[in-house]
Give the backbone structure.
Amino acid sequence: MTRVFSGVQPSGDMHIGNYLGAFRQWVEDQHSSDAFYCIVDLHALTVDTDPEMLRSRTVDAAINLLAVGLDPQICTIFVQSHVPEHAQLSWLLECMASMGELRRMTQFKEKGAGRESVRVGLFTYPVLMTADILLYDAERVPVGDDQRQHLELARNLAIRFNNRYGDTFVVPAPSVPRVAARVMDLQDPTQKMSKSSISPTGTVAILDSADQIEKKVRRAVTDPGKEVVYDPVNKPGISNLLDILAAVTGKSNSELATEYHSYAQLKSDVAEALIELLRPIQQRHAQLSADPGEVLAILARGAERAQSIAAVTLERAANAMGLLPPKLI
Ligand code: AMP
Ligand code: TRP
């Protein structure tokens, strides 16, 4: 079976960009692959986060992943910091990466821009992400479009390591959905929808009420003119709404465009489609939240299975690099 790995940061409310760009693929992949899904709490430390908030968001991230349909009987869900091999392999890989290639990472440039002080972890973030993936010999990594560059780095580091120290890692490939790979902010359709958005009205959270969804979509920024056409360059607002509707309904965005003659009708259908899409997820979220003990037990079992694989890969990499094993083997 193909090994699949992906991760999500417990850094805020999960939104429809996460769902359409990533989680939907994860749910599908769990049936056909040996899939590992990781709540990357170490990555969330790269910007200042309240400790209690981080802990509760980590549990909530797990509840969200279960609510969208991940089944712990057939895939592995775990928390990154529960498997210390992630941080350990990250160090070995930091010794393979160059300052220049990390400096070119656009996410680092965006998140670091304008800050007086930037945490070193924010700079080395993509190396930790590489470690996440390589530890599980993952062949495929289902992610949204914004992670392509990080995946390219992961591939380069795997290839470089294999060339220098012998065949050690599987070289992973990204898997980016054809539609909704980059859901844009409803208030600023030139920016991707994100957990750290400054305008909460631009982001539709997975747990938003029907009323909130309806209001946010109705107030979404649209473009001059009245015609509904799919044109991401000149009509980014309308095109984003068409992309969202296409992703939810399975129709093509340009085909959908021909069905609408007013922005208002399109918005009303987008809101309705999202409300219907999220309703069952919200119901499961409410049920799971009532039993956090069960969620913690799922995470503990997930970490145990993850570690049994990660430990073997870490040892292989450490040996290849010439580290002395702690005991004779
Ligand atoms: P993050 O919220 O950054 O932890 O991302 C978790 C997953 O969701 C990653 O695979 C991202 O690529 C994906 N993702 C995040 N934001 C969006 C978006 N606006 N559109 C599509 N995919 C997204
Ligand atoms: N960097 C990813 C994001 O912000 C999260 C992530 C961390 C990840 N490790 C990963 C995604 C490994 C895929 C594989 O969305």
User: Anything to note?
Assistant: Residues 5-7, 9, 40, 43, 129, 132-133, 141, 143, 147, 150 surround tryptophan (ligand 2) (CB under 6 Å). The longest helix spans residues 292-321. Residues 31 and 74 are 7 Å apart (CA to CA).
